[in-house]
Design a protein that fits this description.
Number of helices: 16
Number of domains: 2
Radius of gyration: 22 Å
Low-confidence stretches: none
Order of helices and strands: HHHHHHHHHHHHHHHH
Shape: globular
Strand content: under 5%
Helix content: over 70%
Distance between the termini: 30 Å
Largest sheet: none
Length: 448
């Protein structure tokens, strides 16, 4: 198949930008996997409490991260127009908004047991989770700071060092957990508290690492000079772009949280199979997230220069790459589901065969799921590149909550299709989001 030089160039740029971003997301996800494995070996109660606490933390992280993600298209656009002052302003105000968000919601971590019990969680488990969250709550700003600086550096096409710093955090997390959870090498045995301290240390390490690197590699930018000085116009821009991004991410997180809750109604085996299948889907999905981030950067730069032809070429190249990877993943899910699932499950577990059987059915549905999920995240990345986030937020709420979850419930419980029906409903919601967002992008592209 012939590919023109223009599209070949855009595909090369997409891979160059997207590969480090995707790898960074994979490493970041692996930090959580390490925590889960180690706490699972410590005690089931500790694992359950931290899973509960991490879910609670992740909601605030994903919403507050909207301000950091807003920095990427704004910086990309400013780069294309040569506006160094605007680059500094939006990055600083991204840090301001992230700090304000972290301070405002710190109390919700401190008194999280009451919140969790209001949501129907076990009181004793909620208290243990609260102890974890009272430490991890202080990691929210460093975690959000990483997103801001990462977005700033990514827009300037300087992602490799961020990947190395994230990898360093992953490496540090392993011995810290080993020491503080289990009390090895002379350290006190802290259990859940040890995991919390390790997470706080790792997030501070990564935040300092990306900040020092940004200052070292781009000294002329001076993004931390006069950091205390507000820039209200830049703050409004970041807030107007970032708040809808956070809300959109929250809507998608809510879709999967609701699905996990409904899957739990089906029983232990379906829930376990769902968890493993979702892990596999998530590992593939972050590749599309990386490509979407690269698309946001390249679309943002073309948008800043008002180069409609380049913008169209970038979007087509990005979408094609994402679909190729989604197709390959779907083929793997259809042809070798059992070996993929078995990598996550102890073969000696009495429910091993049941989980493999049920999980294989979910992965068959995930083959379709992969394609539509990739399409919607790419559409979202394109729209962020042209700084359109408010309407996509409404589209996400409609697609995920009004279309996706109700249909998932109907397929699963009314039609009695079980877990595969639930995943089919999620696919319908994601497909609706993909159609809406891609159609909006094409409409706005015509208007340029």
């Amino acid at each position: 198949m012939y590919i023109s030089d223009a599209y070949r160039s855009q595909i090369k740029k997409m891979i160059t930008l997207g590969a480090p971003l995707a790898a960074g997301y994979i490493v970041h996800v692996s930090i959580g996997v390490t925590d889960t494995i180690m706490l699972g070996r410590y005690s089931v109660d500790a694992l359950a409490a931290v899973v509960l606490g991490h879910t609670y933390f992740f909601v605030f992280f994903i919403v507050g991260g909207g301000f950091g993600h807003a920095v990427m298209p704004l910086v990309a656009s400013a780069v294309s127009s040569g506006d160094d002052l605007q680059i500094r302003r939006v990055t600083r105000m991204g840090l301001w908004l992230s700090a304000a968000f972290s301070i405002i919601f710190l109390g919700s971590f401190w008194f999280s047991s009451a919140v969790l019990q209001l949501l129907g969680q076990d009181p004793s488990l909620s208290l243990v989770a609260q102890g974890y969250l009272r430490v991890v709550g202080f990691a929210l700003f460093p975690a959000l700071m990483v997103i801001v600086i990462k977005s700033y550096l990514s827009a300037l096409e300087l992602m490799c060092a961020v990947l190395l710093i994230t990898l360093g955090g992953f490496i540090i997390n392993i011995p810290l957990n080993y020491c503080l959870i289990f009390g090895n090498w002379g350290a006190p045995e802290l259990g859940v508290q040890g995991a919390a301290i390790a997470s706080l240390v790792v997030n501070i390490f990564m935040a300092l690492g990306v900040a020092l690197y940004a200052q070292w590699v781009l000294p002329a930018q001076q993004i931390f000079a006069r950091l205390w000085h507000p820039d209200w116009s830049a703050m409004v821009k970041v807030a107007k772009l970032g708040a809808p991004i956070g809300a959109t991410s929250f809507a998608e997180v809510g879709l999967f949280s609701g699905a996990s809750l409904m899957m739990g109604w089906l029983g232990t085996v379906p829930l376990a199979a769902h968890g493993v299948a979702l892990q596999l889907t998530s590992l593939a999905f972050v590749v599309h997230v990386g490509l979407s981030g690269a698309a946001t950067i390249l679309v943002g730069k073309a948008y800043g220069r008002q180069e409609k032809t380049t913008l169209r070429q970038v979007s087509i190249a990005a979408f094609a790459l994402s679909m190729v990877f989604a197709t390959l993943t779907a083929i793997a899910y259809v042809t070798i589901p059992a070996p993929l699932l078995a990598a996550f499950i102890d073969a000696a577990d009495p429910a091993f065969d049941q989980i493999i059987f049920y999980g294989s059915a979910l992965l068959l549905m995930s083959a379709l799921f992969q394609v539509v999920d990739a399409a919607q995240v790419m559409g979202l990345g394109f729209l962020r590149g042209i700084q359109d986030t408010a309407v996509p937020m409404a589209m996400a709420v409609v697609s995920y909550w009004i279309i996706g979850l109700p249909i998932a419930y109907i397929f699963c419980f009314i039609f009695d299709w079980g877990g595969p029906g639930l995943w089919a409903g999620l696919a319908v919601g994601l497909a609706a989001a993909a159609v809406m967002m891609l159609a909006r992008f094409l409409l706005l592209l015509k208007r340029l």
